[in-house]
Structure formats: C-alpha cells, structure tokens
Amino acid sequence: VVSTDSAATPVAFASIYNRELRQGTIANHQGFFSFAARIGDTIEISSVGYKNGLAVVPDIANGQAFTALVFLQPEVSLLPEARVYPWLSKEQFRQAFINIPIPEDDLERARKNLDPQTLLALGENLHDANIIAKQSLNAYSATYYYQGQYQPQTILSPTAWMQFFDALNKGLFKK
Fold first, then answer.
1. Global pTM?
2. Closest by Cα among 40, 70, 36, 46 to 58
3. 138-149: per-residue pLDDT in tens?
C-alpha cells in the first residue's frame, strides 16, 4: 500500500478488509500485507488521512500468487475553527483579567516559572502523542502480523543467542 502524494511512499499500518470473506489484516510499517483471497474478492484498503482504495483479485492460475501495488490518495479535511473560552461571557473574562494577581517584579515571576518542583510536575504529566501513537501501532502491528500463525520464539533465534553470549562474555550477568 503506497501513497500517491510522492514517490511511492509506503502507507504504514493501513487496514485491509476482504468484503466477501469478512476478514481483515493490517499492513506492516512498509505498507506490505499478505493473506489468502479468492478470485473476484473485493479488498478494501483504508488508512487515516487517505481516501479508501479498492482492489479486486483478478483471475489467476491456481496456486499462483498475486502481487499488486495499491495507491491511496491523501485526503485533507479542514475543520472549522473552534474557540474555547473558560468564561461564560466577555464580562466575566474582563473581570478575571482585571483582578489577576501579578507579581511585583520580573525576578519573582521568573522564580515562580522556573521552580524545580513545578517543572518536574509539568514534565511528569507531559506526554508526546507521536511517541505514544508509534508504540501503540507497533504493538498492534506485531499482534496482527502473526495472526493465525505461531509467533517466532526468541529462544530459537541465533541472533538472540549471540547477544546473550556477548553479554555473558562482557560480564553483564555477574550480579
């Protein structure tokens, strides 16, 4: 699954749905997906920020695989402006603005704004939406990528064994 907005940029984690079989999957981070389908099945591809795409499985010989590039067009939605006010009326805002307590000097304001406890509290409550979204999509991707089959076990991975023995040689497990 690739985007039409530039040079075949993959659409990561696109949703794929077979309308006839009522089954679906999710593409990986490179836009690749694979599953069994019948001749004539309509495959619907969707992703946030793109118009839905359709693909029909063509007539191919038995046992043959079918590979296709599915292009999705970006869809930009402009939302109307929303203004949020904490006061019910302009008069209440005016009164709150006039009566706001302002420190006497700039140094006192700077101390208040740079208080370590205040900055720590702000930092603990600060969450990066991009990082959280990426972690969530990676977790879903790993789950759906192996759906219907056994997930590989890291105990059987030569790379994992190599990393284990390297760590053992470096003495990382002495504790």
1. 0.45
2. 40
3. 888 877 777 778
